[in-house]
Each structure stands twice: as structure tokens, then as C-alpha cells.
Amino acid sequence: MRANYKLQRLHVPHDLAAGVEFDADKQQSHYLAHVLRKVEGDALLVFNGRDGEWEAVIAAVTKKAVRLKVGAQTRPQPATPDLVYAFAPLKVGRLDYLVQKAVEMGAGILQPVITQHTQASKIPIEKFEANAMEAAEQCGVLAVPPVRPTIKLDRLLASWETDRRLIFCDEDADTDNPLAALRAVTETKLGLLVGPEGGFSEEERRMLRALPFVTAIPLGPRILRADTAAVAALAVMQAAIGDWR
Q1: Co-location of 163 and 234 in the same domain
Q2: Is residue 38 scored above 80 in pLDDT?
Q3: What is the pLDDT at residue 3?
Q4: Is the pTM of this model over 0.90?
Q5: Residue 125 sits in the same domain as residue 25
Q6: Residue 22 to residues 36, 41, 71, 79, Cα–Cα distance (Å)
Q7: Residue 57's domain spans which residues?
Q8: Final residue before a domain boundary, out of 55, 75, 95
Q9: CATH number at residue 224
């Protein structure tokens, strides 16, 4: 069932069922009452990542909070996407875009990775989580992907599930077409690794290529920024071996 894009959507922590009432948090209450100018009786959609999506109405607007009352379920909870999205953090503005687009494209887990050329000095996990939640609200996703603790690349590879195929974007591939390499993938459990602005080092590239669960793919004849490469890689993966098929 397709998402309803005409109604405002909110991610909430509360258990959801018909007749349940709860107060939206402070930030959400302010947004509903003072930005959107919602009033008692207005409808919206709520989800928590566990119970599916539900229609709700504004039961009351007070100085303290906006109270919501849950009505009927509009969509059941789907299976969580089984795609691990591992990425080297970028500069702040581009990083917001990268996380949001990963959620929209079906990432099930967000995994920040430190590589040799990673330039970000601070890894804002809470900001990643907020961006993921906002993207889920805006694009109809019913589960907000969890953000795993930041890990160095060598440790990520050492702990990787060997039955999960890891695709990495290799700018030094011998061809421009990623489809041949992707069509050879037989695993259903997938991961994607996207490097930093400076790309992977030669040492990292050799380490990745030596692992039996890793597949290197190119991303066309042009040099792409890291955030553009992330979206391109997610799109071609989902179309060739993911949930677009």
C-alpha cells in the first residue's frame, strides 16, 4: 500500500492502537500548533517503526502540548530493509543529504565508518538519527534505520557477516558499467560501502578486493562526489539486485 503524502506524518515513541491518546513531544507540538497551524479535529499520520502507520486526529491543543488520538491503521508494518549502508562521514551539509537519501533509498542500518581519508573530525550520531527520522517522516518510510556506533574500516571488515555481500564503489575499476558485477551476486543479504571525499586509499582498496565477500563496482565514466556516488550506488544496487526488482 502506497503512503499518503497529503497528510503530515510524525514518528512517535508510543505504542499505537485504535483509541490510544498521547501528547506529542515539545518540538512536535510546537511544529503542529505554531508552524502548521493545526487545530482540534485535524488529521495526520503517526508511526513508531513497530506497529505500522495509523491515522490520528488532534484531540486538543494546549499551551503545554498537542494531544493526539489514534484512529484506524492505514498501513501494516513491513519487514525492515535488510541493507547495511556503511559510509565514511562527510562534511556536515553534504552528510545530512547523504543520510536522508540513504533512508529514502531503502537502507536498513546506517553504519558510519572511519577510513584513512575520512575528513570529519566529529561523528554526530544524534544528528544522523534526527536526519533519518525526518527522512522517514517525509518519504513514507515506516521504520527509521538505526545508526550503529562509528567503527574503523578494518574492524568493520573483520566483524562482517561473511554471508552478506558487501558492495564497494571502486573508482579504479577496469570498466564503467556496474551491472555485470552486480548480476553475479547471488546473496540476498547485502551491504554497501561508500568512501570519503578522497576515496579509498590503495591499502584499503587492496584489503577490500582480497576479501571473498566483497564485490567492487564502478559508477560510470564520470568522477562523482561522495554524496552523489552514494545515491547512484544505492539506485543501481536496488534496481539490479535489491527491492526494486
Answers
A1: yes
A2: yes
A3: 67
A4: no
A5: no
A6: 19, 15, 12, 26
A7: 9-75
A8: 75
A9: 3.40.1280.10
- What pLDDT is attached to residue 42? 96
96 with 202, same domain?
A: yes
52 and 94 part of one domain: no
Distance between CA 68 and CA 12 in Å, rounded? 11
Find the CATH number of the domain harbouring 54: 2.40.240.20
| Alpha carbons 170 and 185: distance in angstroms, whole number | 16
pLDDT digits (tens, 9 = 90+) for 43-101: 999 999 999 999 999 999 998 999 999 999 999 999 888 999 999 987 766 778 888 99
In a domain, 60, yes or no: yes
* Residue 1 belongs to some domain of the structure: no
Q: Is residue 164 part of a domain?
A: yes
Q: In what order do the strands lie in the sheet with 53-61?
A: 9-11, 43-47, 53-61, 66-75, 21-23
Q: Which residues is 111 bridged to in the sheet?
A: 86
Q: Following DSSP, what letter does each residue of the chain receive, concatenated? A: -----SS-EEE-SS---TT-EEE--HHHHHIIIIIS---TT-EEEEE-SSS-EEEEEEEEE-SS-EEEEEEEEEEPPPPPP-EEEEE----HHHHHHHHHHHHHTT-SEEEEEE-TT---SS--HHHHHHHHHHHHHHHT-SSPPPBPPPEEHHHHHHT--TTSEEEEE-TT-S-S--HHHHHT---SSEEEEE--TT---HHHHHHHHTSTTEEEE---SS---HHHHHHHHHHHHHHHTSTT-
17 lies in the same domain as 124? no
Length of the chain: 245
38/176: higher pLDDT: 38
